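Researcher: I'd like a structural prediction for the single chain below. Treat it as a standalone chain; there are no partners to consider.
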Amino acid sequence: MIPNETTKIWIIYLQVLKTNETEHLTNVTNYYLSKIVEQPAFYYGRIPNLCYLAHGYINIQLVCIRYEQQQYVESAKYIQKAYNTYSKLSEGLSQQIHIAQVDNNFAKINWKYTGKYDHAAKDLLQALQIDRNNVEIFINIVLIQASAELYSYTLNSFSTALLIIEALNETDYLSYELIYREIGQNLCKIEIILASIIPLLASRGVSRRYLLEDLANEILYEIFEYLDVYDIYKGFYNLNKRFQNLTINSNVLTKINISIISKSNFEDYHRNILIPNQNRINFLRLSNPFAAEIIFSRTRLVLNFIRLEKLILENIQIKHLYKICDNLIHLRKLHSLTISISDYIESLSLIFARIFLLSKLKYCKIEYQTKNYEEPLLTIFTEYDYSQIQSLIINGRFPFDSFSHLLCCLPK
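Model: Treating it as a single chain, here is the predicted structure.
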């Protein structure tokens, strides 16, 4: 019985890959629900994972069709179905490569159909940690960056994707075409931005010849206000000594927002920008898990962030979070903390105990996910847990029995 059911699933899955017809896809979905999922054989071996994978793909196809038809309510319905299906798949899979595919599809949903670029980037980073040589994941990352108008990040990521294709000796001409087309489009957008700046400078009597060299420092600082700090660093830092000094002395370096970036690029950025300006930074957002580990894992490095007031840490692994929180105690001006944990957690006690030790904290948002919804989530508050936090946002499952104890720890 099991081989027969497996054969049925594969036949239907191959049919799905070859069609975009709404009626056929709907019939296939109904077939899964009525003929396969409800049968005893479904609960044995690899059949559940295979069925969820195909079923999720069907819903993604239906999302695309309804979106193209501008039937947005219907599209949103299938997004939710796809999300629920892939959630089941990610919990039950034994092979991590399939989990990477799931995260990649989560990202497509968040990026293409809800516009949640940060959520999409988070899903793709998780996929990339599992499957670092997946060109499709890199391409999706750069498409998200392009949608968010992070053009310098986009060009760097496209370069990485090209290197991966060449290293694998693949003749993936479609990927080559997509990458080069997107590079051209991003360069055009950068040119458009520069073209809009030139008339403004001309109105102030600035010559287009020797344009950069003729600009006064005040005008350059004004331009910097419209650029991301990483763009400023990549575009100006290595031009000459004057621009290097302008970059270092710019007030924009007090607010650092680092999105998706390779580890080698971050280490270069950390060495030349972050370390020289540690004592000036008052806002810091880190999206890569290795970034927070590099910056906050050593106490002597943390002590230099004497003006840091707001910190956002995304995609943090729980094994690094405890050490990072222990070192954050030394930041006397830190009053706002946002944490997004990338892996599953089983206990909140140690996390909240460390957060409550941050005496100056007024605002805290923590986002996490749990793997098993049936077992109780361990959360114990002691008489020593007490915090000055005035606004606490918890985005994750929290045990109801511990809620009153949590409130007792937050008198304000």
